[in-house]
Write a structure and sequence with these properties.
alpha/beta; 11-stranded mixed β-sheet; two-stranded antiparallel ribbon; 14 helices; about 40% helix; globular; binds NADP nicotinamide-adenine-dinucleotide phosphate
Length: about 425
């Protein structure tokens, strides 16, 4: 990828004690182009980003892209899938954006994405879901969906603590639990552990509530399966309410208090904290989507619900996302590397472009994020789309990946 002339002039974004960022006019931002279709969509996205920044600030600001290696390109050049230098770049620059990465088979790494999240402690997976006019959607009123999923990224059954059936470790645990904890598990069972802590649950909920307050959303819903998994998912719910009461007493109110103390009417200026059992939340998302804004949830619930919501607005292939920690934030396309389309300049770059719009919001450059979203929506609703959307729309003009980016740029002018 060409990031020509970018290394010398950039300045670092800095993190303030209160968690806010100070962003210079020429910030250094890491870009990892990704594998498969990654180079195509990264090239298209960077073109859109640079044009939007130039347009929004009349040339006064410019991102200095710092290309970092990960995935196949990194392996070919350095022999490592995720070089230490890339991690250092991300720690230094604080903000980065990445294309999809191939999961190496048998390389001793479960997944590069999971490794990146763990090493940099990117504990919140944030996935905004809203409808873009013109996108073919499977529901009647997709425009009623405007939700932002905050998924806990480090714990739950995804922690990877599991042993196969009949392994010595699983057998040992089955015996131990039988002998010491008075619980019987069928001999020969596989065992997985579901750790969930107050610390990790609360830092996720804290971030979700802050986001709702900053963005002017009306409610935060804790999505859990606490009716069955009382001490893990049930505790997530409990810890979430406790955090809201302890740290955001003046800015939030529980749904119970809205009914008990305010006759069911949400007091002005207060974000309502509510909770829903996960299976019910899937129903609510379809039946009453406009009653939900920010959703905070444990890892597995978040994995399922974020994809289901994205599908609801027809945007699985264009859903944006980010993995955010207290120090570093990495914005990313949510789809994979689609290797069969690699190098064909064919696929839809919207997921990466919209992730970039989120990134600019995060940097405090909202004008850029808004410009990108507006121009992308105008392009899609005019019927200028890549093959994936064209095959579902009547009368659409199918364009290449780079042409789609160019069409977005032209709509900003
Ligand atoms: P995938 O790469 O997402 O591709 C599956 C299908 O989704 C494609 O064949 C294509 O459908 C459609 N698609 C994906 N991206 C698209 C785009 N930008 N525009 C239009 N259509 C798009 O999933 P996969 O084949 O399961 O995974 C391939 C590799 O990606 C694996 O190595 C996997 O580990 C990795 N992966 C990485 C990430 C990540 O880095 N975040 C996430 C998921 C998977 P059609 O064939 O119908 O056109």
């Amino acid at each position: 990828m060409s990031t020509e002339g970018s290394t010398q002039k950039g300045q670092l974004i800095t993190l303030n004690d209160d968690g806010t960022l100070t962003v210079p006019d020429n910030p250094m931002v890491v870009v990892i182009e990704g594998d498969g279709i990654g180079p195509d969509i990264s090239r298209a996205a960077v073109k859109v980003f640079d044009s939007a920044v130039a347009k929004a600030y009349g040339g006064q600001r410019k991102v200095q892209w710092q290309e970092a290696l990960a995935g196949e390109k990194a392996f070919a050049e350095t022999g490592q899938w995720l070089p230490e230098e890339t991690l250092q770049n991300l720690r230094q620059c604080i903000v980065g954006i990445k294309g999809p990465l191939t999961t190496p088979v048998g390389g001793g790494i479960r997944s590069l994405n999971v490794t990146l999240r763990q090493v940099l402690d990117l504990y919140a997976c944030v996935r905004p879901v809203r409808y873009y006019k013109g996108v073919p959607a499977p529901v009647r009123f997709p425009e009623k969906v405007d939700m932002v999923v905050f998924r806990e990224n480090t714990e739950d059954v995804y922690a990877g603590i599991e042993w196969p059936a009949n392994s010595p470790e699983a057998n040992q645990l089955v015996s131990y639990i039988g002998e010491h904890l008075n619980r019987e598990i069928r001999p020969g069972s596989a065992i997985g552990i579901k750790p969930m802590s107050r610390f990790a649950s609360q830092r996720l909920v804290r971030r979700a509530i802050r986001y709702a307050l900053d963005q002017g959303y009306q409610n935060v819903t804790l999505v859990h399966k606490g009716n069955i998994m009382k001490y893990t998912e049930g505790a997530f719910r409990q810890w979430g309410y406790e955090l809201a009461a302890e740290e955001f007493a003046e800015q939030t109110i529980s749904e119970a208090d809205v009914y008990e103390k305010h006759g069911g009417k949400q007091p002005q200026g207060r974000v309502v904290i509510k909770d829903r059992i996960a299976d019910m939340m899937f129903q609510q998302a379809l039946l009453r989507p406009d009653e939900y804004d920010v959703l905070a949830m444990p890892n597995l619930n978040g994995d399922y619900l974020s994809d289901a919501l994205a599908a609801q607005v027809g945007g699985l292939g264009m859903a944006p996302g980010a993995n955010i920690g207290d120090e570093v934030a990495v914005f990313e396309a949510t789809h994979g590397t689609a290797p069969k389309y690699a190098g064909q300049d064919k696929v839809n770059p919207s997921s990466l472009i919209l992730s970039g719009a989120m990134m600019f919001d995060y940097m405090g450059w909202q004008e850029v994020g808004d410009l990108i979203r507006t121009a992308l929506e105008a392009t899609v609703s005019a019927g200028t789309v890549t093959y994936d959307l064209a095959r579902q729309m009547d009368g659409a003009e199918e364009v290449k990946c780079s042409e789609f980016a160019q069409a977005i740029v032209e709509r900003m002018a």
